[in-house]
Structures are given as C-alpha cells and as structure tokens.
Amino acid sequence: MSGRRTRGWAFACLAGAALGVSLVVLIILIAITALQAGPITSMRAVAGAGISLSLRSMDVPGTRDAVAFVTVAQVEAGSPAAGLGMSRGDALLTVGDTPVNRPSQAWDAVGAAPGGREVTLPVVWMPRPEITLGTLRAASVEGAPRVVLSAPSESAQAGGLRAGDVLLTAGGIPIAGTRQAWEALVVAARTQGTPIELALEREGEPVLVRWDPTARAELPFVRDPLRAWWTFLTTLNEPRYPERAGLLPAFVGSVYVVLVMAAVAFPLGVAGAVYLEEYAPSNFLTRTIEILVANLAGTPSAVVGIIGLEVFARALGAGRSILAGGLTLSVLILPMMIVATREALRAVPRTLREAALAVGATRWETVRHHVLPYALPGILTGTILSFSRALGEAAPLLLLGAFLFVTYVPQGLGDSFTVVPLQIFEWATRPQDGFATVAAAAIVILVALLLLLNAVAIVLRTRFQRRWSG
Amino acid sequence: MSDPGAPPILSTRAFSLWYGSHQALFQVTLDIAARQVTAIIGPSGCGKSTLIRAFNRLNDLIPGVRTSGEVLFRGEEIYGRGVDPVDVRRHIGMVFQKPNPFPKSVFENVAFGLRINGFRGNLAERVERALQQAALWDEVKDDLHRKTGYDLSGGQQQRLCIARALAVAPEVLLMDEPCSALDPIASAKIEDLIRELARSVTVVIVTHNMQQAARVSNWTAFMLLGELVEFGPTREVFTRPTDGRTEAYITGRFG
User: Fold this and answer.
1) Do both A278 and A418 map to the same domain?
2) How many Å from the N-terminal Cα to the C-terminal Cα in chain A?
3) Does residue B4 have a pLDDT over 80?
4) Which residues have C-beta within 8 Å of that of residue B161, sequence separation ≥ 6?
5) Which residues have a Cβ under 8 Å from the Cβ of A105 and sit 6 or more positions away?
6) What CATH number should be reported for the domain holding residue A423?
7) Which residues of chain B approach chain A closer than 8 Å at the C-beta?
8) What ranges make up the beta strands (E) of B74-218?
C-alpha cells in the first residue's frame, strides 16, 4: 500500500511539474499571441475590406530621389472596396487620418483606429491613370518630350483640363512621360496635399490649374482576431500579399509528413527497442548496434536530410514527395524513439516479467500482455517528444528538396509539399513589409501545435497511469 | 531418503551453475518427494534462491548463466536439448519473495495463466477454485474485477500470487522466501496454506527463517556457499544434524 502511495505522489509531482511548465509556456504563448493578434488582425481586416496593397516607388525626374507610395494590387469582386469604385492600380493615399507610404501604415491605421470589432474609416485614393487623367499621348515640341492629354477623363474635365493640354509639372514635379504622369500626380498629392497645382501649356499659353484628382469614401473594416487567425490557418497561400498569406498548405503538409513518419517510425522504433531489450542475445553484434543507434540519435539533422535525398528521393524514386519527407523524418527520430522506448522497457520491474514467465507465458506473451502495457506511458512520452522535434525540423526537408512555398494543398503521398517550419523560413527571409508579421503568426501556430502535442502526451500518461494505479 | 516406493518428482544430479565466471552452485544432488514440503535453508548468498530458480529455468533470463549436471522433472532432463523452458514453467509454478501481482484486476491476475495456456472451459470457475485454494476467495469475491492486485494488502497480494500460480494446476510449486515481506499474521496464514497445499502439490520453499522451515516442511536441505551440506527429514536435520556446519547454523552460531 505504501509503495502505491509513493508512486501516487511521484505521479502527482510529475504531473504537477508538467502542468506547471505547460502553464508557463501557455502564458508566454498568450503574450506572444496578444502581440501578434493586432498586426495579423488588422492585416486580415484590410484584406477583408477587399484590398491588397503593394509598395511602389517613383524616381523623381531631375533628382536622385525616389518616392515610395502604396498601390492597390488587388480588389476582391463584390467587396466593399469594389463597391466604392476602387480598382487595381489605384494609389492609396490615406487611411483614417494617416498618410500611407508603406502597406504597414495602412494596416497599423486600421489596427489603431478607435472603436470595436467593426470600424469604418475615411479612405483617400487616386484612381488609376486612365480614370484620373484619361488618354495621354507623347509628343515632341521643338525636340523636347512633352505629354499631351488627348482625351481627358470626366474627372480631369471637371478639374478644368481640356483635350490637347500639354502637361508640364504637377506640384513642381516635372512630368517626363506618359507613364510617369500619374505617378507625378500621386507624389505631388502625397508631398503637398490636394488640390494639386498643375502647370499646363494650352494653345501655346501657360496655364495653372488647381485640381483635386483624388477619390474619398468611407471603407468598413472588420477587426476580428479569432476569425483572422482562423482564416490565416485555413486559407491557401497567396505569394505576393502578406494580408492574404495562408498557412493551410504548409499545415496540411506538416500533418501528412508527420503521419507518414508516425506510421513508419512508431512500429519500427518500438519493435526495434523490444528486440534489443527483450530478445537480442548479448553479443558483439548487439552491442555494436546499440552503440550505433545511440550515436545515430545525435546525428545532425542536415546529415539525415542528405540520406533522405540520396536514398528516398533519388535511389527509391520517391522524389520530393510527402512520402520521402515522412521517411526522412522517420530516419531522424527512429534512434530517439528506440532509445526512449528502451528506457521505458528497462524501467519495467524484473519481478513483473518473472511473474508472467513463471505461469508459463512465452517471452512474447510476457512482452505483449505485461511489459508493453506497463512501459506504454514512457513509450508514448518518448514518442510524442520525438514527434514534436520532427514537427519543428526544417533542415532535413530543405536538403531533401521540399518546396519553400506551395500554394495548393497536397492531396496524396506523392505530392510535393512544404511544412510549417520551411514556410516560416521562407516568410522570414522576405524583405517586403508584412511577411515578418506573417512569419511570427506562423511561429505562434507552430508553438501552439507543439504545446498541444505535449498536452496530449501528458493526458495519455495520466490516463494510463490512472488505469494502472487504480 | 524419500519414500522408498515413490520416485522423486524433481531431482538434481551433480548440478552446478555459474553466473559468468562466478560459480554459485557446486555439484548439488538431491531428490524432492512428490506432495511433500521441502524446505531449503541457509545463510544469505548460499545459493538457495539460485537452486530453486534452476528448477523452473528462471535463471535463463540472466545473461551469462551456465549450468552443468542435470535437473530431472519426472525423470526428464529439463535442461536437455529441445526442452522449452515455457513448458517447464507450465508444470512448475513459482511464488516470489516480494508479492508481484500484475497491475490488473484480481480476476485477470488469476486468469492470465489460464488464458495464455489456451484454457477452454469455465474460466470463472477455475479462477474461483484457485482463489479458494489460496484462501483468498472470501476476501476478494465481491470485487474481483473492480480491485487491482495493487489494491490488496501485502499478505493478500502474496496469496493472490499463490492463486495465480495454482490456477494452471502445476505439479510443483516453488516458493522463494514467500513470507519475508510479510508480517507474522500474514506469514502464519501462508504457512497454513502451504501445509494445506502439500496434499495436492509438491512444495519447495526457500526460507531463511528456520522456525518456519521446521513448522511447514517434511524435508529440509541445508546449503552453504553453493554446496548442499545436508538433506534429510526435517525432524532429523533439526534434532540430529550429521554435519557440524548444519548444527552451527541451526543453533544460531552463524547466519
């Protein structure tokens, strides 16, 4: 009875320690999530309003300066933005009261705006060139290049422009070509505000026009952290716009790879450990294998990746598939699994084996009915810890040739894939605004996944232990 | 020295055993009479546990064990070629020093041996009979499936282990210091049980408690440093030992 009580205490302490550690990790995780919740939520809110942003820059003629501005790269059909008449190629000038020079300023403006879940902000933009200005024609006047407004748009006409006007400067910025004309307007609006002073030549006479070419409207944004995270996790990846980045392909890739790995490594690892621990004769060969297995557990994962590339991808012809990835990771964790399982088997009291053998059980019956069930909590803990390690591995799969970026969900074992750590690596190395935030969000999800796995390990442990002791 | 008419059920012939380079048993020769209680006594490390574990080949589990000589069960050499130790253990049961029930229900503890031996019949009835033989039935009959082996007291656990061994109807029951982890009352119950069991089963018991050997056994073997020093009817060994070392031990001059 006292033995049982001691064991109970040991379990209670162990479970308590595990729960304590988990709790600390959970608190850290919540803190990180809170830090990331703002950016990812406002990015998703911008995407939800129907627009994706990209950064453009314009060289100012006659200077070495370049001015950056934000354009609307995508407008979703049927979205609020589309309803307001925004379209692809428009320059976004302000969101709320904030001038927008980089996409992150737009996201931040949405995030920082006072109000609740739904917030409607005034947005100022300059529609794309053909709507703002109309048709332009390049001309040459006395050898100098000139830009002629051949068919002014409605907005230009309302601003006082006529067909045949030669455009000279916008807010003092020279208009050097038909393609740059609109950019000059954007930069002028950006730097000096509206209306813009536009210098023209009309029928040989210089004319100064003050014109406001921008459009204004109220755009509704929905800031919903839960939905933002959920959408991030469940949408396909969009390679160019961080507000539409999705983790689904990498997440599914990770799940598939880990499933393949589990299907291979768990039975092999447990069987190998049972053989070494319960059956193998104690001779030179066994000892050699034991040393090799122990050493293999410390092999750098990149080396395992090369094995995977040569053996599974090339020699066995599995290519850069999920199958090859799962097999490579199983090579990585197999020695860890064997070592952990052997430890668990060694912890089974000898008296238990003797009890079974003494009633005439064979070695297999003893292992099957008594040793394995008794060692199961330890085996499961080792297994799940190995799995968590494999889930976070990027190096071996990188060497195997797994893709960094996949925009579709893999359908079967033969499909090419990426995994969450590789996707994080890919996002983190992008220079563009916003991908660092997306990478951080993916890291939060990966850590949450690992925490979940470890929680499952603890639950399984305590469940089995309760069965034994009670 | 056993009953002249009845052949011994278990006997050793010049049996020696080594753990690696260490020799633990030296040329042990003895006959164990059927349906009697034979006690093996001697100081710690004298090889009595090694000897009893040789009877069901449990030493095989220890790496580096070698044997010479013979152990005969019903005239058959159990260390012979082609003899499966599993078969030997199905006929020669064992109870250990420390109670070692399985971490399963009381019922499953007893039923395990029957299940793996392919018993087809009324499992519940056999389990009940084994528990009754072990004088445990009345104490556990109400929660056969609810309580695990670990929920019982030390003495009950040991009787559960006896029931587990008896369930497969062995011809010999080996007991390796079965009372050393128990209090006097629990020990007394086990001793009563041993005398009861000897009517149907051959019992070989290792003990370092000489009073116990004197109380329960018909035959006593005294071992010292791996040698069988003296073997005879218990009464004679305790009252008129032929060897000076036996006398020194039983009178408490060493041990």
Assistant:
1) yes
2) 12
3) no
4) A355, B95, B96, B99, B100, B101
5) A70, A95, A98, A99
6) 1.10.3720.10
7) 56, 58, 61, 63-64, 86-87, 89-90, 93-94, 96, 98, 100-103, 112-113, 116-117, 148, 150-151, 153-154, 161, 164-165, 167-168
8) 76-77, 92-95, 172-176, 202-206
The answer to whether position A143 is within a domain reads yes
Provide the percentage of residues in chain A whose pLDDT is more than 90. Answer: 41
Task: Verify whether the Cβ–Cβ distance A362 to B90 is below 8 Å.
Answer: no
Of A4, A282, A355, the CB nearest to B102: A355
CA neighbours closer than 13 Å in the CB half-sphere of residue A447: 16
| Burial environment of residue A255 by CB neighbours within 10 A (0 to 12, 13 to 18, 19 or more) | middle
Residues A370 and A287 in one domain: yes
- From the list B89, B103, B150, which residue is nearest A357 (CB)? B89
Average pLDDT for chain B: 89
**Domain assignment present for A467:** no
Distance CA A121, CA B195 (A): 95
Residue A466 lies in a domain: no
Instruction: Report residue A1 as tokens.
Output: 């009875």
C-alpha A368: how far from chain center? 43
Range with lowest mean pLDDT among A6-15, A97-106, A247-256, B166-175: A6-15
If asked whether residues A308 and A200 sit together in one domain, one would say no
pLDDT of B56-112, one tens digit each? 999 888 888 999 999 999 888 998 888 888 989 999 999 999 999 998 899 999 999
More confidently predicted of A11 and A336: A336
Judged on CB neighbours under 10 Å (0-12, 13-18, 19+), B53 is buried
pLDDT tens digit sequence for A90-135? 999 999 989 999 999 999 999 888 888 899 999 999 999 999 999 9
Minimum distance, in Å, between the CA of residue B155 and any CA atom of chain A = 11
**Do A286 and A406 belong together in one domain?**
yes
**Chain A residues in contact with B181 (beta carbon < 8 A):** none
**Residues of chain A with C-beta less than 8 angstroms from the C-beta of B178:** none
From A197, A212, A227, give the residue that closes a domain.
A212
